[in-house]
Each structure stands twice: as structure tokens, then as C-alpha cells.
Amino acid sequence: xxxxxxxxxxxxxxxxxxxxxxxxxxxxxxxxxxxxxxxxxxxxxxxxxxxxxxxxxxxxxxxxxxxxxxxxxxxxxxxxxxxxxxxxxxxxxxxxxxxxxxxxxxxxxxxxxxxxxxxxxxxxxxxxxxxxxxxxxxxxxxxxxxxxxxxxxxxxxxxxxxxxxxxxxxxxxxxxxxxxxxxxxxxxxxxxxxxxxxxxxxxxxxxxxxxxxxxxxxxxxxxx
Amino acid sequence: xxxxxxxxxxxxxxxxxxxxxxxxxxxxxxxxxxxxxxxxxxxxxxxxxxxxxxxxxxxxxxxxx
Lengths: 224, 65
Fold this sequence. Notes:
The structure holds two protein chains of two kinds. Chain A is α+β, with helices and mostly antiparallel strands.
């Protein structure tokens, strides 16, 4: 068995190919413990996102559970005030909010929006209102797909900051225990958690859009 | 336990807790430029307390209008 700094390398941790010594393992556990809740939340969002990416068209269909439900946003992307949106479906459910696909009629036709609806009792909602428009478009499927891509970017941003947070703990408290190796182990775990989502989402959305365009072209060809 | 940050800054999960939001939503607010973080010496983004104050007091009268 390998030894490092006089200690056996015998501890394995998820998604890291190497083995850690006892003191590296302690460092890993303390640092990962600090980001554990956030990591679990990230994995949960990633799982929900997989469904959204695999079958975006399902989410674009109005969901009966939201019939006659609406949400009011204070501002639109153009600065319009107090807009009422009819809820079409729920794209992502978080602990304190829901990300909803909504629609409303405008002078130019139907507009689709992704709206985050916050827990109305939250301090944030008390001050800023309980709903915020995240993006808008005129095609529900593309709006859903764009939402999935944006959420995936947010997950990567989140993972990167979680690693930075863990790094702070490791360097401040375990600077003599191979901090770089411990940080790599944590970084690999976080990268793995979001990495698969990244590839899947980008590829699936590209495939879906290409297939849709081909079908549209074929449809146009047949009608000529 | 909090990573040691600037005394007047909060780690993202703590900021999320104060706002009553998920961390994921706080990261989205940062990406939308509605919440402005600061970068700590070792790279972590944290939320300055004055930024939290701004977000929680801003538009205080709007929801009732």
C-alpha cells in the first residue's frame, strides 16, 4: 500500500481515483461537510433537470394542475409593470421556489415566460415581490430548452463556488496536509456532479433542435 | 460552519438563508446582476452585508403599490 508523509493511503472518497491518508481524509471530511448541504441541493436540481432536458416538449404542454392559476410579476424585460402570467407548467421545483413556464397575450401574440415564483413569506419576496421573469420567448419549447441550458450554467457556477469555499477551509485549517490533493478530490466530486448534466443537456438540446428544424423543413417541402 | 470570509460578508448558503431562498436562486440572482458578490482571497464569492441590506430594503413599498 502506498504511503505519503509516513501515512498509509487507504481512504477512498466518491469520484476520486486516488486514495487519501488519514489526515487528508480528515481534511476532506471537514471541508466537504461545509458544502454538503449545498452539494445535495445541486444533485437534486441536476436530477430534476435531466427530466426537463430529456422531454422538454412534455413541459411545454399545459399541465391541468395549473389550469386557471396565474402569477403576477412586477417588471417585464421591457420594464412593463405588474404583468399577469397564466401558468402553463412547473419546470423545476426548489425548496423555496418554483420555476414555472407561463404565457400571456400581447399585442404581438402569445408570449411565453419562465418565471421563478418565490415563497411569498420569504424576506426576499416581501421586499422584491414573489415572482421574477427569468426569460421570455415566442416558442414554448425553445423557452423550456433555454431554461434548461441556463439552469445548467447556474449549476456549474454553483459547483465552482462550492469548491472555492471548500478550498478556503482546507487552506486555512489543513495547509500542511496536502491541500492540493484534498481540493482535487472535492473538485472532482463536484465536477462529476455537474459534468454529466452539462454534456447531456448540450447534446440533447442540439439534437432536438436539429430534428425539429428538419421536420419543419420537410413539412414545408410537402406543402409546396 | 462558515468558511472564514470577510466579517461583513456572507457565504452564499447563509445569504440564501437570510433571503429565504435556495442557494440556486441566489446564484441566479448573481448571474442576472441583481445581487453583487465580492471575491474572497481564496476565490470564494460571498455576499457583502451592505448588498444584503440593499436587496432587502430596495423597493420596500413596491409590493403594496
